[in-house]
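Researcher: Quick one. two chains, 526 residues in total.
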Amino acid sequence: MTPLRVVGRVVLDFFASTGRLVLFALTALSHCVRPPFYFRSVGRQMVEIGYYSLPVVGLTAIFTGMVLALQSYTGFARFSAEGAVANVVVVSITRELGPVLAGLMVAGRIGASMAAEIGTMRVTEQIDALTTLSTNPMKYMVAPRLVAGLLMLPLLVLVANTIGVFGGYLVGVYKLGFNPAIYIENTWDALTTEDVVSGLVKASVFGFIIALMGCYHGYHSRGGAQGVGGATTNAVVSASILILSFDYVLTELFFAR
Amino acid sequence: MTEAAPAPDTITPDAAAKIRIRGLRKRFGPKVVLDGLDLDVGDGESVVVIGGSGTGKSVLLKCILGILDANRGSILIDGEEIVGADADRREAINRKFGMLFQGSALFDSLPVWENVAFGLLARKRLGRGQARDAAIDKLSHVGLTADVADLFPAELSGGMQKRVALARAIAADPEIIFFDEPTTGLDPIMADVINDLIVDITRDVGATALSITHDMASARKIANRIAMLHEGKIIWAGPVADIDRSGNAFVDQFIHGRAEGPIKMAVRA
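Model:
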């Protein structure tokens, strides 16, 4: 009986926590569209997510672009197809690597800080204090973060795409000896609106996931410093896994023929 | 004595009780915390609920504030039922409340004045400039000057944080103020200062006060009436002057702080 019981317990726990998460997300979303709106909080979160993540995301993007050019060159040289490097760099960056890597980096930076901040507010009764001051904590804390995540990740990814493609250009031109004009022309030829837009839609979804996981785990943290630490870990891990799995789902939706 | 029914004086003769609690029940899983609690708080009265750690004093306050939902029973505020009330009703009733949290619970991302004015700003009663003036005025009521208005809570000592939290609790001129262990973590002198402030402020504002504490010095100072919570029920209630001759073994053990007696401390929460 015991193994069956364990399986049952795990399955039930899984459905219960999925249900809780979906309810949390729906409640938070409903607060995003109902007044009052906390524009100051939204602005503050947008700066925190968008502006302060720029260095991390930019560095990630430039090295990714550089490595991509280098690696694909070694691979394509075997088939004498070196000319496809610019092509591969721009498509990989805009479709996949820009959104996913920016998402993962922001999950580490922002998801963790949201979970820690909200978790500390929970264990120090600041969330209860909001309720007693006629302020709905979901509306005041969670909704602005979701909106900021949803809006800022695409902008970040747009910057990351540009920097990543530029990283590929640097390696292509200065290390691999491509003609700069031809490299840029190849890049333009390979670049399509569909690639960029699909990447930005992914970014938006990832931004929502990051903020949702940070808020959800922080909001439900229990038991002092240890609880907040656990919430932070859970926020980053679950956001990262969800980003990778939703990346597949969205790619399937956009490109499966 | 463990099966004691509520003493007759638990229920004030005053029919127009500000807070009237009947048969309040709250459990977490199998653990019953509040087990049919009855309590009345008259208009303008200051009632202190005493009881050991983990007896459900905080749960009682959280049920009244709507932070926790009671499983059963009734809580009337000015005759209006709040158990099972919808969110809008709750929020309207919560506007009558001010709450001083045990750990102060100041918002550490906001400066002192915004903490104090938070409720006023949330209700859109005032612009930011006016709210700031109102906050500085409330800070002066708790013995703080305008200098602290732009500091952040982390820059203040525990006693000053408590004062700021008190200013926040009274900022919107509440009809009922709740105090959750107001003197915990303060030195005896600062504790007395806070007790004096609580007495003065509730008298000045004319507010009804419901406090929970296990600090008997504090309870004697701020209460008109004391009620003792044990095993989820009020087992004794009476005027503060009667506390030393309650004739109740539980109360005697508690107020004299004796390990020996009918109350057995549970190790696990």
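Chain B has a mean pLDDT of 85.
Researcher: Thanks, that's what I needed.
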